[in-house]
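Thread title: Can someone regenerate the structure for this chain?

I was given the following input by a collaborator and told the matching structure tokens would be attached. They weren't. Posting the sequence so someone can regenerate them.
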Amino acid sequence: MKKFFELLTHRIVTFVVAMVLQLIVLIIVISRFNNYSSIFYGVMLLFSFIIVLWLINSKSNPAYKMAWVIPIIALPVFGAVFYWLFGNKGLSKKDRSKLIIIAETIQVNMPQNEEIMNSLKVNDSKGYSQAHYIKGYAFAPPYSKTYSLYFPSGEEMYDKLLIDIKSAKKYIFLEFFIIATGTMWQGILDVLVEKVNEGVDVRVCYDDVGCILTLPSKYDAYLNSIGVKTAVFNPLKLKMSSKYNNRNHRKIAIIDGTIGYTGGCNIADEYINKIEKRGHWKDAAIRLHGDAVWSLTVMFLTMWDYIQHTTSDFNHLYPPALTDQIFPEIGLVQPFSDNPLDMEPVGNHIYLNLINRAEKYIYIKTPYLIIDHGLYTALSLAAKSGVEVIIITPGQGDKWYVHETTRSYYKMLIQEGICIYEYTPGFMHEKSIVVDDEYAVIGTVNLDYRSLFLHFECGVWLWKTPSIKEMKNDFLMIITQCQKVTLESFEDISFFKIALRAFLRIFAPLM
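Best answer:
Regenerated them for you:
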């Protein structure tokens, strides 16, 4: 009885009930006006027509346009209202002001080393064009004096992260989409409390939607009470808003501005396989040590200031030079962030750049394969041009409808010469791409619309670093545990499943 009462009073139940009640009221109001006033119906039809025209002529992704145009045409009155409430990505004046401040803060605090860019331009024109794009549109420069270490599992990342945060002297910054109570978080929290008592500046940032089922209500107040400064991105409120579409999907850990982590791993027990969730959980992360960590630090601090309405002292937090380190003579590391507010899909364009410039192979690991026409064309053209294109997706999905949508793309991609493998032991959550032994990206960006266009994301572009070979070797090892998807496997699929996948594809950008 106690568990049942706790379930009824859980904030997600309260939130869902509030949303449903508001939708019911909205539907009733629209229906009443619609039934009693032909003028209202005519105005709403005109409103729907204007929205459709605006969508068609907007810069939005074509798949996103179609996903909204269909319901607006099918249900002109309700569809238009729902789009206005949930689909309209236009920026408010307040958001525009914040965006300008964030962009200016990043540009001021990101050191631009033109010597590195000039050297890259001479040595590798393809690499230069990619670095130039990231520097120009994510305001993030490439760095040379940085070690990069690839972790092929969450378990290995967690073990090293614990060691690193124990060594912190000045500050520890953690920013994750999901934090869940359990073994992994408790192990980290115990160390964070120790560090708070030592006078270390400890800050934690998490996404409220991502943590709605994994953390107790008002958990930020608890963390603040024990000295762990906490910021919550987009706190859930009992009102309908399109803001919940824009989630902070980033995963960043920073120790003293000299050691940094990012990748697919959140802080929850399934990521280190302490509990089984969708079979074996395959994830990965990258550890940076050196100058490039400052970019991750700036990313964290600008997000912190965005949420908390504060102004950080970047100069005070800038780390001392690592004069005692001998860094690799070759290789560049370029962390980047992507946000949905500036209408520049940095993550999507980085993937397109890598795919379009590949000459030998493209190896991709992704939990979701819900791509638009641009990515489909790029992958298809690469395969048709003789480039080996292999994509590994999960054998077990975390959401059935998303997994079925991912599988709906298999046949058309295989027909273009692209190889698809499913990770049969369980769930493939890693987000990475390796190209031609020279380039790689690892981070939080999934190959789906939500991640590429709606979420706050981050990643690291790598050029000729030793970690690229580590990523390639892990890919070749993991593929031995995968099942190749063949055209023959589609012969026995039922008509119902084919129809279901076709229907889901229509609304893929809204998932």
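The longest strand covers residues 201-207.
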